[in-house]
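Re: the 654-residue chain
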Amino acid sequence: MSPATGSPAAPDVSQARALELSAGLARVEGSPFLHAGVAGTARERISTVIIDEHGAMARVVAGRIAALMRARAAEGRPIVLGLATGSTPIGVYRELIRLHREEGLSFRHVISFNLDEYYPMKADSIHSYHRFMWENLFSHVDIAPANVHIPDGTLDRAEVEQACAAYEAAIDAAGGIDFQLLGIGKTGHIGFNEPGSGEQSRTRLVHLDSITRRDAAADFFGEENVPREALTMGIATIMGAREIAILATGEHKAGVVLRAVEGEIDRAVAATFLQRHANTTFYVDDAAAAALTRVATPWLIDEVAWDEHLAVRAVTWLAGKQQKAILKLTQADYAENHLTSLVARHGSPGAVNGLVFNMLGAKIRGKSKLPRGLKVICFSPHPDDDVISMGGILRKFVENANAMTVAYMTSGNIAVFDHDVRRYMDFLTRLENERLGEHSTVRKLADTVHAFLQRKQAGEVDIPEVQDIKRIIRESEAVSGIEVMGLTKDHARFLNLPFYQTGKVRKDPIGPADVKIVAELLRELQPDLIFVAGDLSDPHGTHRMCKEAIDRAVAEVYAGAAAASRPEIWLYRGAWQEWPITDATVLVPLSQEELTIKIQAIFKHQSQKDSAPFPGQDEREFWQRVEQRNKGTARELDQLGLAEYFAMEAYVVA
């Protein structure tokens, strides 16, 4: 390939490692494995760096981009950046904006090419990547508009092929892409290179995979509104970049990260082609890295420094692989699976088996072993996360006479269908007509609401009146839900954090106003224990943002305080996945009656029943997910030879 096409430079395998070490983010110290390079292990075919703190990840990647920009500017030459959209790169863009504002990083020498755009798509649509880039980066820096290139979703179909060729020609004319930023989809797509995309593919119009469209449904307020086609750079275009950074965060990306990094190159998983690129670095958080061999089963790679937590993981894995109860594992089972060093450490298989069996059993806490008489706050990101994720323990805490407050952090109003608004307005109008006459404020409100909904376009931001109605619907459902748990409306706090109040799927960053509201509640109630959502794979990232607000508020309120005066923090999951029993600190058994009550509380959230607006990739209703996950956790313990329970919730004490 000629320099004009952006042929990759010779690999610099020390570069990503140097970045990692200079940022103080190396994961070797304190990790359970003794050997790690840039890629971690020989099984990893793409250099992979694990950085769990998302702000740190953004700083590392943005820092690399800034270094390249400054070096080129010093030479008086432009730099060509390939840019991506989506929730993961936003942190990088915010850090670049900060560097521009606070450290004088100039974009005057930057030429940018975006990966993709939906087709057809108006540039000013709230769904367009053109608008995304200007709102999240370009309008905040000094880049020349003429240097910004984004595929044009407004073209007539007859113009598309020529425009795609022109896009490729523009990249070549700029000298090729110096640094390409990527995310990864659940199918392993990069850009919109769906399963089946060829390694020689170039910028083109593609049909979107059904999984990709379902993934995007949250942004479009329904899969039926997602475009069926998109314009995208091809695999060959991406591979022509001299340096590539690909980012992934969240539990829901763990499987595809494993496939991309350790699997065979396959057209069905476009990201696997990056294994052939000389200078690609994969940046992942702990959740996205969880399935990598060096994280999930490090003993299969090299010697490990055994501790009790790693022993629990290894023995539980072994029991599952051998389909045996823990106490039935033999010396042969350990020897055949690279675990003789674990046996040697403890003296015999029986000693290891007994240790792990007892450690898992000690995690199980029925009502009599749970806290009593404490002041407790359950922080619920959405108005239903409390009963979905921790309905069982919530009821047990109530029965144990704990002083409970459920703090709903956002209104969840974007997750209410318009037809629910029409139904409630029809109810109020009928009631008023029969009781109060036809010339009241309800009639005026109903006319305003119906007129707006009649003309509303898919994905359009609701008027304040509709947003308020949707908020009230969800608040009333939340109160109904906790009433099943034995609480009342007096135990509910609706915080309505400002970051959520955009009326759009994409939210603002967590700011001082959000932290202040949470901090004020902590100061007022002075809790002994708080529950925080720990499943960070919800479709819009709201759980992650709410956790950030809580973490910052806790740090502010308890700055300098002794550990004993800080509230204990329990992390729950449930709506999107459950804690593995090996990671859980506390396992709470539920009887059949208790699980039924929990499901009844979930049913009170009628606007999310039958067909939730944002179900994610799991098509089951929330109550079905809960039932199967809670039963599944109990079944796993039973298969390991521990006591048999009907269902079980899992928690991590942070």
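Residues 1-39 have pLDDT under 50 and may be disordered.
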